[in-house]
Design a protein that fits this description.
It is built from 15 helices and 20 strands. The chain is of the alpha+beta class and 452 residues long. The chain has three domains: 4-103, 3-Layer(aba) Sandwich (Rossmann fold); 132-200, Dna Ligase, domain 1; 206-448, D-amino Acid Aminotransferase, Chain A, domain 1 (2-Layer Sandwich). β10 and β11 form a beta hairpin.
Length: 452
């Protein structure tokens, strides 16, 4: 195991990684920008080091600055968390060049699977279902028109990015050229790569993903997560297990995810994402997220496996400390993401925390980096906390989240908690009747129930 790890991130994910490192006796190095000077993650780490000015490009997205911090602190390894540089193979290469170990899949694998079309081709070659569409980048509107003719409405997506950026829906041939050019421009702007591809637009699918852990000796799954509650492709609520899957479909899905991991040579922690057409009981491989996911706590709550610990074990050469036969899924877990934003307009709400009361109790977990006086900056993502609950049943887990949300007090900034409370009281959600279109389509109704 490593003696010192630098965490190339901030906020709640930095404090979460610190927690596991501390339990393992591993020293931690926190990095911070000017906006985060004195932030909680810098206080919890064994040491902290400034990496630049407040704008992300000058700090948390500066490979040169972070690698200099690695050298100056003597960190043996770098844990990237999620977001920022966590999925950039160039960063992983630079970390290794600086003499440290990258806590994640190898840079060569990261580079290959950065391309969604590459991953789609690997899936197809291994008999894994994929959404009908293109398997190479699309550059000619005529290609889009052919796909429209064959499959109906299609979705243009970036080949090397996600999160809804560079995505366009096309329903008519006359809009193909404009949509293709717009998607390509946006993909280039956000991901530095203008390549895009297209696939059939599925009708109200569910979004289900499988947590994978792998080392040179083999691949282990930690079951699946349901992530269909999304607003503009951004997840809002996650849970495990998925209420949509039968035992047979779950078995097929988990086996498929493991096969895909082996086919790509994947190691360390990764998430293999699928879309699921519930009416047809058909799932399709979507993409690979080559990092720790925001929603990993629901998996930890239902399996008892510390995913960060396993990441560190694999990266250090110790190998996985678990085998598939030893992994069991117990009960249900649900996570609510808490954003510093107006619950009705979703406009970010930067400011300073003036009052704070964080719920606790049996089977309740809150991942955060908050304290009274914490500045919530407009420079960074507004996700400030995650509330996770476990229950012996789905209804019990939901009930615990509801109770904890009512006890969660954050003043000084607006938060998404009022909207979360409405969602957790919605009958369709309680009954497990939802898909990726659910939240966007019901938002007017849900927002009307928010109490001022």
């Amino acid at each position: 195991m490593f003696s010192k790890v630098l965490i190339a991130n901030r906020g709640e994910i930095a404090t979460r990684v610190i927690r596991t490192c501390r339990r393992l006796g591993v020293e931690t190095v926190a990095i911070y920008s000017d906006a985060d000077a004195g932030a909680l993650h810098t206080k919890l780490a064994d040491e902290s080091i400034r990496v630049g000015e407040s704008p992300p490009l000058k700090s948390y997205l500066s490979i040169a600055n972070i690698c200099e911090a690695v050298t100056r602190t003597g960190a043996e390894a770098v844990h990237p968390g999620y977001g920022f540089l966590s999925e950039f193979y160039q960063f992983a290469e630079a970390v290794e060049k600086a003499g440290a170990v990258w806590v994640g899949p190898s840079p060569s694998v990261m580079k290959r699977i950065e391309s969604k079309t590459y991953s789609r081709r690997v899936a197809r070659e291994n008999g894994i279902p994929t959404i009908p569409g293109a398997y190479e980048p699309v550059r000619d509107p005529v290609e889009l028109e052919k796909l429209l003719s064959e499959f109906g409405p299609i979705l243009i997506k970036p080949d090397a990015g996600g999160g809804g950026k560079g995505t366009r829906k096309v329903t008519e041939p006359r809009t193909a050229k404009e949509a293709l050019e717009g998607a390509s421009r946006e993909a280039k702007l956000y991901f530095g790569n203008g390549d895009v591809y297209a696939e059939k637009l599925l009708d109200a699918p569910r979004h289900v993903e499988v947590q994978i852990l792998a080392d040179e000796g083999g691949v282990v799954h930690l079951f699946e997560r349901e992530c269909s509650l999304q607003r503009r492709v951004q997840k809002v609520v996650e849970e495990s297990p998925s209420p949509a899957l039968t035992r047979e479909r779950r078995t097929d899905l988990l086996r498929t995810a493991k096969a895909m991991a082996k086919a790509t040579g994947y190691t360390n922690a990764g998430t293999f994402e699928f879309l699921y057409e519930e009416s047809k009981e058909q799932f399709y491989f979507l993409e690979i997220n080559k990092r720790l996911q925001v929603e990993h706590p629901v998996t930890e709550m239902t399996t008892g496996v510390d995913i960060v610990e396993q990441q560190l074990r694999v990266a250090s050469g110790d190998g996985l400390g678990i085998e598939q036969d030893g992994v069991e899924q117990r009960g249900n877990s649900v996570e609510a993401r808490i954003y510093a934003e107006d619950p009705k307009t979703f406009i970010p709400s930067p400011g300073k925390i003036t009052k704070l009361s964080i719920p606790d109790g049996e089977h309740i977990r809150v991942d955060h980096a908050l304290e009274v006086g914490t500045s919530v900056s407009f420079y960074y993502d507004p996700l400030i906390a995650k509330l996770i609950a476990w229950g012996s049943s789905r209804s019990e887990a939901i009930s615990r989240v509801e109770e904890s949300l009512s006890a969660f007090v954050i003043e000084g900034v607006k938060t998404s908690i009022p909207l979360q409370r409405v969602i957790f009281d919605d009958k369709d959600f309680l009954d497990g009747r939802f898909d990726t279109t659910y939240l966007d389509s019901k938002l007017p109704e849900l927002r009307a129930q928010i109490k001022d």
